[in-house]
Each structure stands twice: as structure tokens, then as C-alpha cells.
Amino acid sequence: MIDPKTQILATATFDLANEAKMIGFGKDMARLIKSPMIITMRGDLGAGKTTLSRGVLQGLGHRGNVKSPTYTLVEPYELEVGAVYHFDLYRMVDPEELEYMGFADYLLDAALCLIEWPERGEGFIPLADISISIGEANNGRCVTLQGHSNVGRQLVEQLVESGA
Prior knowledge:
The protein has 164 residues and is an alpha/beta fold. It contains five helices and seven strands.
């Protein structure tokens, strides 16, 4: 669940019928991303966090496979927008592991950080520009975005205006 204690400047919910719609939605998001940006994603196993990340990365120009960094914790991409880091914190036992892996350095270098399971890094992850919650809905997915910064708010509002 998205932390209710954080500042919310914009919120929107989208119903996505299938995997192709989730990837398309990620590509729509990618067209609106202004770097640097942190996007966190929450949802149960198999909810579609990596699928959404795949859409974002493809929308930013990545042409290869997008694998979940479950075992490596981070998968780096060098794209036209700059350095993009896809984190999957599911297997983290202690949030301090982020400090040992140099997480703060990734943030300084990143044009975009996509972070799955951010609750596992609580206390070490700064406030996201956009937090995403993915749940089940009518055989598809319900994706809720909350913008916590001005760039996050703008992205959410532009997605709504575009009818994504």
C-alpha cells in the first residue's frame, strides 16, 4: 500500500486489461518522464511490476530483454535519457543492504530509478516522485499512481489528460 503519510500532489487510477496494455502504459509513462526521477512500485508477486518496468524501459529506447533483477538487486541500462537503474528489493533481508551496495551512488548517477518492493528498503529510499500500486481488477490490473513531487504530479496529470 502507498504510504499515506507522504505528500500527494496528484493521484490517478488506470484499469489495464492485460500484459500488452501494461507494457503500453509503461511506454506512455516513458514519453513523459523528466529526469532525474524515482518511481517505486508495490504489488503482490506476479502483479506486473516488472512488466510495467519493461514497458517504461522499452519506451525509453531499450531494445533487449528486460529481466527482473530479483537476484542481482539492480539491473543497469544506459539509454539516451541517461543511466536507468531497475531495482528489485524482494530478496533483501535488511534495508541496510542498500547502503552496502552503494545505493546512494546509484541515485546520484541516475536519470531514472525504477524500484520494485520499496518497502524492503524503508529508511534508505528517498521519497519517490511517483509511487505506483498494482492490484488485481476484473481479470486485469488496477494501477494507481501518486505524484509526490512537481515532476511526479505533472506526469500523472499528463497521463490522465492523454487518456492513457
